[in-house]
């Protein structure tokens, strides 16, 4: 992968946005990419990569099914194919796997998407690394695909966390429904500790409310989320499950809230609202029910839309719609089951069932079954996914200007990346002040309008320093 020259970094064409359906294959992201083009939806291609199975190493179907859905997460896979992870590995991070899981994952993904006649691949390297870092996922014992997915995404996030030194940030609660500015501040605080491709793609923000039912005192707190874990009911569809999940509910006795006014544990209720919606939405249908007395699997069919899942009514901030591209299925019972996945291939735009080494093309209508356990949706109402960069906005001078030493102009880790050839005059404003205070409302219609970055009054045009995304 060639890095952009500084000229590329400042050229207008570097922020040109194009309709995903017309997008060429040759879009190359470079290390400080600002936006990842949304290429989920594209015209069918002649080639069909990504159709390689994964060998089962003894009850590892729950891992294989999760890998295939992640592998078909187009922007994540391209990030690895373009070797961007090599520039962002954070092996010093004590929460990371020292890059071991990420490197193994990247090698596997690149093999899965290589043009090849290979029918299947042995994922032993990645699975060994997963087991090394979390012995819970021991060989020969079937585990929960959702737990594996949560662990894997968490490790990828920490391995690729662009934050080298996490500052201490105090958690804030509010006694009244917070506003947009407070939401932006909470998100910005989160980014001070967490910035990675995983945050860029998978994370959203919710606001959680607790209310004392004796004195009515309320407490609001912003949180980030990577999945919606939905309890399911019989004869309900996905939208009804989401509504039910977000409905205010009384807390049971074991989980009562300690009210700050009553200064004791009181009868209370909770409510969740979504605020910022993620680019990739993972929905976990809670089919496995565990209570003190019994465990069971709920096998009801939950109807879910393939296209235009609309979450606009559930978000305080954003209007967005989603299309389905992956499903992890669990068939069988709680104690004896099997995982497979259904994924839409970005090249052929067709659906396939991945059952370890076996892959078969399926009809769209075969995707919806009562085995569906985890659903993967991509936001279809935007044409690119933004990098969640924090503190970095710079005015960029032309490439002929002499560059001050990087260490003298930039503090923090973001620019401590070798071989960066950006021409940056100075660090001028923080995203906290500029970018994040602008409400990000996306139209319900599939607007392909470019979100132009507006220059600050009296200053040269402002770009993200990371705008060296090259579209060839
Ligand atoms: Zn109270």
UniProtKB/TrEMBL annotation:
<comment type="similarity">
    <text>Belongs to the peptidase C19 family.</text>
</comment>
<dbReference type="InterPro" id="IPR038765">
    <property type="entry name" value="Papain-like_cys_pep_sf"/>
</dbReference>
<keyword id="KW-0378">Hydrolase</keyword>
<dbReference type="InterPro" id="IPR028889">
    <property type="entry name" value="USP"/>
</dbReference>
<dbReference type="Pfam" id="PF00443">
    <property type="entry name" value="UCH"/>
</dbReference>
<dbReference type="InterPro" id="IPR001394">
    <property type="entry name" value="Peptidase_C19_UCH"/>
</dbReference>
<protein>
    <recommendedName>
        <fullName>Ubiquitin carboxyl-terminal hydrolase</fullName>
        <ecNumber>3.4.19.12</ecNumber>
    </recommendedName>
</protein>
<dbReference type="GO" id="GO:0004843">
    <property type="term" value="F:cysteine-type deubiquitinase activity"/>
</dbReference>
<keyword id="KW-0833">Ubl conjugation pathway</keyword>
<feature type="domain" description="USP">
    <location>
        <begin position="52"/>
        <end position="380"/>
    </location>
</feature>
<dbReference type="InterPro" id="IPR050185">
    <property type="entry name" value="Ub_carboxyl-term_hydrolase"/>
</dbReference>
<dbReference type="InterPro" id="IPR018200">
    <property type="entry name" value="USP_CS"/>
</dbReference>
<keyword id="KW-0645">Protease</keyword>
<keyword id="KW-0788">Thiol protease</keyword>
<dbReference type="GO" id="GO:0006508">
    <property type="term" value="P:proteolysis"/>
</dbReference>
<dbReference type="GO" id="GO:0016579">
    <property type="term" value="P:protein deubiquitination"/>
</dbReference>
């Amino acid at each position: 992968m060639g890095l952009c020259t500084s000229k590329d970094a400042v050229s207008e064409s570097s922020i040109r946005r194009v309709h995903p359906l017309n997008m060429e294959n040759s879009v190359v992201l470079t290390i400080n990419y600002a936006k990842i083009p949304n290429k989920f939806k594209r015209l069918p291609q002649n080639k069909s990569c990504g159709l390689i199975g994964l060998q089962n190493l003894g009850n590892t179907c729950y891992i294989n099914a999760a890998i295939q859905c992640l592998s078909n997460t187009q922007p994540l896979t391209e990030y690895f194919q373009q070797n961007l992870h090599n520039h962002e590995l954070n092996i010093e991070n004590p929460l990371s796997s020292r890059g071991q899981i990420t490197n193994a994952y990247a090698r596997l993904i690149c093999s899965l998407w290589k043009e090849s006649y290979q029918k299947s691949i042995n994922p032993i390297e990645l699975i060994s690394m997963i087991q090394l870092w979390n012995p819970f996922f021991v060989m020969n014992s079937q585990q929960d695909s959702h737990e594996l997915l949560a662990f894997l995404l968490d490790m990828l996030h920490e391995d690729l966390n662009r934050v080298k030194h996490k500052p201490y940030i105090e958690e804030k609660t509010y006694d009244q429904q917070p506003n947009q500015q407070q939401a932006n501040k909470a998100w910005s605080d989160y980014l001070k500790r967490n910035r990675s491709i995983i945050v860029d793609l998978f994370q959203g923000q919710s606001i959680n409310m607790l209310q004392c039912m004796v004195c009515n005192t309320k407490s609001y707190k912003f949180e980030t989320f990577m999945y919606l874990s939905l309890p399911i009911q019989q004869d309900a569809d996905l939208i009804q499950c989401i509504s039910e999940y977000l409905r205010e509910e009384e807390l049971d006795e074991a989980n009562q809230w300690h009210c700050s006014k009553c200064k004791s544990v009181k009868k209370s209720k909770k409510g969740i609202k979504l605020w910022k919606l993620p680019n990739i939405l993972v929905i976990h249908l809670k089919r496995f029910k565990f209570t003190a007395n019994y465990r069971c699997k709920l096998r009801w069919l939950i109807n879910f839309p393939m296209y235009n899942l609309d979450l606009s009514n559930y978000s305080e901030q954003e209007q967005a719609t989603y299309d389905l591209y992956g499903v992890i299925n669990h068939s069988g019972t709680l104690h004896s089951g099997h995982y497979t996945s259904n994924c839409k291939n970005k090249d052929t735009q067709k659906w396939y069932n991945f059952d370890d080494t076996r892959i078969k093309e399926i009809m769209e209508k075969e995707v919806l079954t009562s085995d569906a356990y985890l659903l993967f949706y991509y936001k279809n109402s935007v044409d690119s996914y933004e990098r969640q960069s924090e503190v970095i906005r710079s005015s960029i001078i032309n490439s002929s200007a002499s560059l001050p030493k990087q260490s003298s102009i930039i503090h923090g880790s973001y620019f401590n990346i070798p071989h960066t050839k950006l021409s940056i005059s100075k660090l001028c404003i923080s995203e906290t002040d500029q970018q994040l205070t602008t409400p990000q409302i996306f139209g319900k219609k599939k607007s392909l309008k470019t979100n132009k970055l507006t220059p600050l009054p009296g200053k040269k045009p402002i770009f993200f320093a990371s705008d060296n995304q090259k579209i060839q």
